[in-house]
Amino acid sequence: MKMLIINGPNLNMLGVREPDKYGNETYEDLLKRIEKHCREKDIETEFYQSNHEGDLVDRIQQAYFDKTDGIVINPGAYTHTSIAILDALKSVSIPAAEVHISNVKEREDFRQVSYIRAACCFTVMGHGTDGYMEAIDYLADKIGENI
User: Fold this and answer.
1) Which end of the chain, N or C, is less packed with Cβ atoms under 10 Å?
2) Cβ contacts of residue 102 below 8 Å, gap of 6+?
């Protein structure tokens, strides 16, 4: 099973950016935790992070040609603005899970809208970086049922 973990703008700044909302764990620490979690479940992982919307769209499209089984995506602020990322997720028809480290339901009004959610089969928010593991486990179970 092959999973692509996509992170959008500012996720590379974990541990630096607003630790009261996002914690002290660095981006590199998060990737190591995800790798370990997936290795224990025999899931191949690939990571991609960009601060640029078009790059994220390109990587989602490439996932189709790479025969990726599932996408875990934390689109950052693009969650609330990007129809392009929504359309890319819809176009590849790969099961996707949306992750948010903070609980966006308890934040600013503009964060209440998620365009991305319409293309995702699962959303986890407010569980810190553990949400990535929840999303991976959910997708692994869902994909396993369809094999």
Assistant:
1) C
2) 21, 22, 125, 126
Average pLDDT (24-36) is 96
pTM assigned to the model: 0.93
- Taken in order of first residue, the domains within the chain and their CATH numbers are 2-145 (3.40.50.9100)
Range from 48-52, 55-59, 109-113, 130-134 carrying the lowest mean pLDDT: 109-113
| CA pseudo-torsion sign 45, 140, 123, 20 | negative
CA-based angle 56:140:121, to the nearest 5?
60
DSSP code, position 147 = -
Per the listing, tokens 């390109």 go with 58
CA atoms of 19 and 25, how far apart (whole Å)? 9
- Which residues lie below 8 Å from residue 75, measured CB to CB, with a gap of 6+? 6, 8, 56, 82, 85, 98, 116
> Which tokens go with 118?
């319409």
Q: How far apart are the C-alpha atoms of 100 and 123, rounded to whole Å?
A: 8
Distance CA 78, CA 125 (A): 15
Q: Provide the token pair at 82.
A: 């990007």
